[in-house]
Specification:
Number of strands: 2
Oligomer: single chain
Number of helices: 4
Strand order of the largest sheet: 1-2
Order of helices and strands: EHEHHH
Helix content: 55-70%
Low-confidence stretches: none
Largest sheet: 2 strands, antiparallel
Radius of gyration: 15 Å
Strand content: 5-15%
Amino acid sequence: MLSVFSLSKTYALTGARIGYLVLPAEIDGTFRAVHESTTSCANGPAQRAALAAMQGDQAFVRSSAEHYRRNTEAAD
């Protein structure tokens, strides 16, 4: 199973274009080979912002998710 995550929406890092992939160890080598030829390196400031977001207080993520959930339910 693969899981793909983007930090731009979750952590309000619009423009950072940074994310990560979680996958089983047995297919890691294959994805590393594909990754090398299809993506470029994230810039330093985006990497530092992503690290700070992921290591920081996650209360913002939970409150934002709840806010969007309420908005979606209200629109139905």
